[in-house]
Amino acid sequence: MTEKLFSNILICSFVSKNNTTSLNTVFTIAKKFDSNVIMLKCFYRELPTFTLFHTKSEKRKQDNLIQETRLELEKVEEMAKYFNVSVKTECVFVESSIEHITAYVQKNNIDLLVADSIPPSDIDIQDHKDTVNRIYKNIECPILTLK
To answer: Which domain holds residue 65?
Structure first.
């Protein structure tokens, strides 16, 4: 019998496309430890052009991003079925990913946080490393970074 070392695994992604190799690794770990997996896609909430409201084009851009993300998350759910692992997927727009992820980890009793080690193309690699490092300092669970 395998002990339940990681009951809840959080995959935190800052990129729109999923890394299949990373997901394979996470789902293999989840299957071994009979873990629940949560896939959390974080997007930075953009400030509106006109301080008080978003333009139609900004809303359309956000809606397109949500649609693309939902399609990617459906692929994650299909992949989880292949591994016979339960996965819950979420997409959030945040002002601070560090604060959101820290609170999420504490609120949901996360035992392992998995973060992308390769940042999205529009974020400087050092900024991404700083974000992951600051999350690491603010939480009490292990972090696994995968390429």
So the answer is: 8-146
